[in-house]
Inverse folding.
């Protein structure tokens, strides 16, 4: 799954993680304030944020673009010298590009959050008649948002287009790799389905899960400081009272609770999804054989194969029943959670409408990032089942024992 697309996957991913961590630490401890050496210094403390699309062309942003490009260039050059893989441009540089545009999309969300402050304060002033709000001022705020939204839409569309090609290249790499070893893999149960269908679904799920994961990480990096900077108006939380970093702490605790809760009630689902693919493959295979051989696909064997399909689906339905009950209850409660957290502050009248909306939006961004597993759990379950099926190929090519679920199938009389 990975060696077909990435150079020396184990070493590559470890080095990528360590290099990313090193670059982040070097940025915050050494390079963040060094932009003045090239005329791209940070603004003085207390400078109001730039509202609108010009935010992305300010000196700190331009300096970060240069820093990111330099970090990628160093890492890519070293790996090109170590292992010039045939899919190097897509797997290494393509991954870096996805990370950058995902970060940029998150910064667009930060720009919109910055716009919330003056916009909703303007709305509050107009409704309360505390000052005069002109039509020109109102239209001006709308135009600021429209330009930010235009950037967001353009980048999102281009990113989705590129990511679609990226994951199809990955599927192509897997397909070519498995077909090159077809003589060793063809005897595995459902080998044709695993090559055609599982690689396709692997690519599709990877597109959704991979980009969502990168977006969650980037959102945390961008919005945690924003959420912390907005905590000055929040002196206490319901029940627990005053605590350090109240909004950040509340978002982390609530998200960890939800992730652990859904992982607990959904732990059986990956195995059931795997078995579902297996019984469907066995039923489909018998029907295909029956097209050419009248002695195949006959009762009682065909009825027993379909009975296995029905039994596994009914188990899936039951397990998804209580899983979805827990998931929906948690997510519905999640919709009002930021208001519950802000209840003492709102009741005391300590914030205006603008900062309140900024806090709620930033809070939701941080929580949604921590809740990556919660929001993606169904897709993760499917991805695990696909991984389990393709893992049999990996084990065969390495001369290792088949995964336990494949061994269980063989023990029950299935083909090797």
């Amino acid at each position: 799954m990975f060696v077909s697309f990435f150079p020396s996957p184990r070493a590559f991913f470890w080095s990528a993680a360590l290099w990313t961590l090193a670059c982040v630490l070097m940025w915050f401890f050494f390079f963040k304030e060094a932009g003045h050496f090239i005329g791209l210094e940070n603004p003085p403390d207390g400078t109001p944020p730039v509202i609108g699309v010009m935010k992305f062309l300010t000196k700190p942003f331009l300096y970060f673009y240069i820093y990111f490009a330099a970090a990628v260039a160093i890492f890519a050059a070293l790996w090109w010298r170590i292992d010039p893989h045939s899919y190097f441009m897509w797997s290494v540089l393509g991954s870096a590009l996805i990370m950058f545009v995902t970060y940029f999309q998150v910064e667009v969300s930060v720009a919109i959050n910055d716009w919330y402050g003056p916009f909703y304060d303007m709305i509050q002033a107009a409704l309360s008649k505390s000052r005069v709000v002109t039509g020109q001022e109102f239209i001006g705020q709308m135009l600021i948002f429209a330009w930010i939204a235009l950037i967001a839409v353009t980048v999102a569309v281009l990113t989705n287009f590129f990511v679609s090609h990226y994951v199809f290249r990955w599927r192509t790499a897997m397909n070519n790799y498995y077909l090159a070893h077809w003589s060793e893999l063809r005897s595995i149960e459902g080998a044709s389905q695993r090559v055609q269908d599982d690689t396709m679904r692997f690519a599709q799920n990877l597109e959704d899960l991979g980009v969502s994961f990168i977006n969650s990480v980037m959102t945390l990096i961008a919005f945690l400081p924003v959420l912390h900077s907005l905590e000055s108006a929040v002196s206490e939380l319901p029940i627990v009272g005053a605590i350090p970093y109240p909004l950040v702490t509340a978002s982390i605790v609530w998200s960890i609770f939800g992730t652990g809760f859904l992982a607990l009630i959904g732990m059986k689902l990956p195995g059931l999804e795997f078995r579902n693919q297996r019984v469907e493959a066995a039923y489909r295979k018998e029907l295909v054989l029956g097209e050419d051989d009248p002695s195949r696909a006959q009762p009682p064997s065909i009825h027993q194969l379909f009975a296995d399909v029905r039994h596994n689906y009914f188990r899936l339905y039951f397990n998804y029943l209580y899983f979805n009950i827990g998931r929906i209850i948690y997510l519905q409660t999640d919709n009002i959670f930021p208001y519950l957290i802000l209840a003492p502050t709102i009741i005391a009248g300590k914030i205006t409408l603008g900062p309140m909306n900024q806090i709620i939006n930033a809070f939701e961004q941080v929580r949604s990032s921590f809740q990556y597993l919660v929001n993606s759990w169904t897709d993760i379950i499917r991805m695990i089942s696909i991984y389990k099926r393709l893992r049999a190929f990996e084990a065969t090519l390495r001369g290792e024992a088949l995964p336990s679920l494949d061994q269980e199938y063989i023990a029950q009389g299935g083909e090797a």
